[in-house]
Amino acid sequence: MSQSRKKPNILVTGTPGTGKTTTASALVEATSLRHINIGDLVRERNLHDGWDDQLDCHIINEDLVCDELEEMMEEGGNIVDYHGCDFFPERWFDCVVVLQTENSVLYDRLTKRGYTGAKLTNNMECEIFQVLLEEAKNSYSEDIVVPLRSDTIDDMDRNVATLTDWARNWQPRC
After folding, report:
1. The domain at 10-168 falls in which architecture?
2. pLDDT by residue (tens digit) across 124-158?
3. Residues 6 or more apart from 131 whose CB is under 8 A from it?
């Protein structure tokens, strides 16, 4: 719980291509918090139940991921970077950032990554219908959910500055 943590935990979420890893990495440099990229963690520690050929990604085992993270999250000082959020315990996070990107910008980013077919369509629809913002609002207290635009480098710089200020001024709840 946040009462025992000396540093905050931040979740950076959003549709793939919205700038989660870029934002989290810049935030880590500015704050010295620890970056936990869930996709990398799943691959490195084998925390999955196989491969989804249609979506071209691992099928993560959410229970294994949560078990792996529990101790680190209780310590605090983490920036978790992942496109989903509803399976993480609410008690873990002090701020949940949902990055949002204009559809044409996101489409260009995803096609440059090689996304096609169902993977491209699913991610575009996810952004259009604000699925991750709704997931965050349904999973966490609305007062810690912060939607941020992430269309340009200036947006990302502004987001990192805002979140850096927030992290520096964060106080544990009593």
Report:
1. 3-Layer(aba) Sandwich (3.40)
2. 999 999 999 999 999 999 999 999 999 999 999 99
3. 15, 125
